[in-house]
């Protein structure tokens, strides 16, 4: 008898439309990118699709730049776990930027693991100055 093998794949990453974690629907992608402008409440991260993995426990972690808490202590990475709900399941791992913007700049590494093995990871660079992308360039030039 063969063992069923699970599959995990990042289906989208970048900037998303606003997401409410209490909603069943996942956020919709706005822009595929790993460069994130430092703007209040911008939503960024990635969606992973899990196939043939129902019931498996995934752990996730968001390593952010050295962001101080209200007392000036560096905040630990944000960690959690989630169980795969069915055999074709999507999971969103993401974050937003909150004030002040200046201490959110830097690399934010997001990781999803299963039994200590990395299944998916992305590093997003939060930037205070974000250059125009190709779309804005062509719109501005009138092409």
Write a structural description.
This is DUF3859 domain-containing protein. With 143 residues, the chain is mostly beta strands. It has 1 helix and 9 strands, in the order βββββββββα.
Defining key terms:
mainly beta; disordered C terminus; five-stranded mixed sheet; 1 helix; 9 strands; four-stranded antiparallel sheet
Give a short overview.
By secondary structure, the protein is mostly beta strands. The chain is 6% helix and 47% strand.
Low-pLDDT residue intervals, each spanning 5 or more residues:
134-143
| Tally of helical segments | 1
SS-derived structural category? mainly beta
Backbone shape: globular
How are the SSEs ordered, and which strands pair?
Elements: E1 7-16, E2 29-31, E3 35-37, E4 43-51, E5 57-63, E6 78-83, E7 88-96, E8 106-114, E9 117-127, H1 134-141
Parallel strand pairs: 3-9
Antiparallel strand pairs: 1-2, 1-4, 4-7, 5-6, 5-8, 8-9
């Amino acid at each position: 008898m063969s063992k069923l093998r699970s599959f995990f794949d990042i289906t989208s990453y970048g900037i998303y439309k606003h997401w409410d974690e209490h909603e069943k629907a996942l956020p919709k992608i706005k822009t595929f990118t790993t460069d994130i402008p430092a703007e209040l409440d911008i939503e960024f991260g990635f969606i992973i699709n899990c196939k043939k993995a129902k019931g498996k426990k995934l752990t996730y972690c968001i390593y952010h730049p050295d962001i101080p808490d209200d007392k000036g202590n560096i905040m630990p990475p944000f960690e959690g776990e989630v169980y795969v709900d069915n055999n074709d399941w999507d999971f969103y791992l993401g974050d937003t930027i909150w004030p002040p913007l200046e201490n959110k700049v830097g690399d934010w590494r997001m990781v999803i693991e299963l039994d200590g093995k990395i299944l998916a990871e992305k590093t997003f660079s939060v930037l205070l100055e974000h250059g125009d992308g190709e779309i804005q360039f062509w719109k501005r030039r009138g092409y």
